[in-house]
Specification:
By secondary structure, this protein is of the alpha+beta class. It contains 14 helices and 15 strands. This is Conserved Putative secreted protein.
Amino acid sequence: MRYISSLGLTALAFVASAPSFAAAPAISTPEDLGTAVSAQIACASIFVAERAEADVLRDDIHAFAPFTTAVTLAVDRKARTVTASAPGAATRTALFRPVAGCTLLTGDVSTAALDAQAAKLKPTRGNAAKPWPIGDAPVPKLAAAAEAKLDRAALDKAVIAAFDEQNKGGYPDTRAIVVVQGGAIVAEHYAPGFDQNTELLGWSASKSIMGTLVGLLVDDGVLKLDDPAPVPEWQGEGDPRSKITLRQLLTMSSGLTFSESYVPGNDSIKMLFEAGDMAAMAAAKPLKDAPGTNWSYSSGTTNILSRIVFQATGGTLEGMTRFAQKRLFEPTGMTSALIEPDETGVQVGSSYAYATARDWARYGLLHLNKGKVGGKQLLSKEWLDFAVTPTKAALRPFYGAQLWLNHAEAEGERRKLYPDLPTDTVMARGHSFQIVAAIPSQDAVIVRLGWTPEGHTFDWNKYLSQIAAALAP
């Protein structure tokens, strides 16, 4: 049975009497998975996005999947925790730390120690008074010539359709759409209860952000694409994994065993909802293929990359957070963005990036503008060329380096990933149909964020192509 299609799903002082929690049990039933997912999601929705508890329970938890419909939540604002319970399921708790976000507790690390990790974190600095996209005041209008070519009525209709046709069951499905063309926001719409200041989860779109952080370190000369990946678990004499390169990790062609299916007992579930050290769990997996010979999508691979970034930036949550802020979030204006860490302090790059819809659009603009921000080259052309080059290990040209591509088959035997979107479209994608699509040929970025639950779908090709068709050519 398929339970989840893909998840890829001011510091506060602490006291010695900080609460502790029992060790996380193995997830053996869908109900156990339900409380684990619910604690993680609800904690961030309440403390990071600052949404009402009743709305989170109804729209996020009970709408998520059949195995979360009986979950109840207990929110302790003083302790900054959310505890999820359900009949017959293990009770799970997540802890919020300002700036860091939420971490699902396993019992391996005390809450006092976790608070100490985040004690020196500071919010991302920004300047809201600067013009878009670095700031929000004022948001420029599309140039008159381009505006004249844009089909405003068709664009508005396409955007609203992506909300109206998916709002089923009494809860929001599409929650935010932002469309940028020519550097201007040409369309922006939110579901009730959400706005331009609401941080929204990217799920596996987070992988693309982590890939960019790796790219910055490669540009700095700290990491090298074709050197063996600096993973301690692989350095034993004769270990075949010692030959895995950073390039192969980035392109999902490491050859490591990892089950991405989301059912209790499988690797992704064990990593995201049982392990306090996610990278160690993923790095312990054996090879199933020779490195570089086979493409296999893996959240574990991205979390190995996350730990590489962690170690390269000082080996602390503070160092990793500050690197992301200083090198990516502050220069691009992504001041709301954060990536939640596991108990070791390593940010969960596979799955847990939050940002406002506008900030996700800013991330798309970085790719649209070939790494330039405000006339300065933030990310090198060489890195971006590599990131959007289809990996040879995949049967189809749909994946680069932590980015999805829309290339057509040279022989024409198979369709593009999204047949009605331009071939040069580059995407960050995640569970529940999150997407950040940069379309260079139209000088456009389209962001769709939502909460499409099990049993529902969102036709990426249909809705995004309708929006793209309404834009100026």
